[in-house]
Backbone:
């Protein structure tokens, strides 16, 4: 056989061998698993991640909401009723005192209060806005006391003793809640003091459960715990500006201060019956000047 034929046959044989090797590799790579062989299980990481995220969210909600529900349930035990008109009597540390109501002083007068902070007695004719206001600065005491007469609870705190997280805790109990107000009270002899009309509770910590109990028992307690039922806590335009309220006066009242018995004051009839409907009180309005007498005639 000619040598050229031998060479061509060798080349053809080599090419066929190479094709066979490639085909064998391709076949082995895509070969189907044998019958009965165990399948490889893929881990569903996406599903596992979603479940973990949901569990974490539920845990976070439980941590934040469960204590609040527990606190509310505990405070609800101090809700007033006809059978228990003043539940604050069972709160350790609450002091009570009777004060005459509806005794008003002017915006320039001061009252010689017998308690600090006061929780009753003569007060300004205009109440401090008590619609869940957290005042950043100390406010005039005489205005705050009038808010108590309307059924509000006033949380006062010593700014030198309460700050940071404790201050935030107190704010959360007041901010946006009707018939509540809060303000610093320089010189306070305890870190925190709660006032409602005729009631006071001084405390050391913002996490004390008695804060919620006091509020539940006395805020808008309609069984006799405050004098002016149905009165408003809203702002009186032109008479009290919650963004710029009358300032706290830290100096002792002078000899011309109004005494706690209200001597020389006349009770406001709008708070004792015969006044504005629903107990709503408006600040006194100065009487209009009398018209000038007509000139005498010539005849």
Residues:
């Amino acid at each position: 056989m000619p040598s050229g034929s031998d060479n061509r046959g060798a080349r053809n044989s080599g090419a066929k061998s190479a094709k066979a090797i490639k085909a064998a590799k391709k076949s082995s790579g895509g070969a189907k698993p044998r019958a009965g062989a165990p399948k490889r299980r893929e881990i569903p990481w996406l599903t596992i991640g979603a479940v973990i995220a949901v569990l974490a969210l539920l845990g976070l909600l439980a941590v934040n909401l469960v204590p609040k529900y527990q606190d509310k349930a505990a405070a609800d035990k101090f809700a007033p009723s006809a059978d228990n008109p003043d539940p604050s009597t069972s709160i350790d540390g609450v002091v009570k005192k009777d004060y005459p109501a509806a005794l008003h002083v002017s915006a320039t007068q001061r009252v010689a209060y017998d308690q600090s902070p006061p929780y009753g007695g003569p007060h300004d004719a205009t109440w401090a806005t008590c619609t869940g206001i957290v005042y950043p600065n100390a406010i005039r005491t005489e205005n705050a006391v009038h808010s108590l007469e309307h059924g509000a609870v006033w949380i006062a705190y010593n700014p030198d003793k309460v700050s940071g997280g404790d201050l935030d805790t107190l704010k959360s109990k007041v901010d946006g809640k009707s018939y509540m107000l809060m303000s610093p009270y320089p010189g306070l002899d305890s870190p925190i003091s709660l006032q409602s009309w005729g009631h006071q509770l001084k405390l050391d910590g913002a996490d004390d459960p008695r804060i919620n109990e006091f509020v539940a028992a006395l805020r808008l307690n309609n069984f006799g715990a405050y004098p002016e039922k149905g009165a408003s806590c809203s702002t009186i335009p032109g008479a009290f500006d919650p963004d710029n309220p009358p300032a706290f006066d830290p100096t002792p009242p002078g000899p011309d201060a109004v005494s706690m018995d209200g001597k020389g004051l006349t009770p406001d009839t709008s708070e004792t019956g015969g006044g504005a409907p629903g107990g709503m009180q408006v600040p006194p309005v100065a009487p209009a000047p009398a018209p000038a007498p007509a000139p005498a005639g010539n005849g």
User: Anything to note?
Assistant: The longest helix spans residues 45-76. The chain has six helices and eight strands. The chain has a mean pLDDT of 84. Residues 134 and 171 are 7 Å apart (CA to CA).
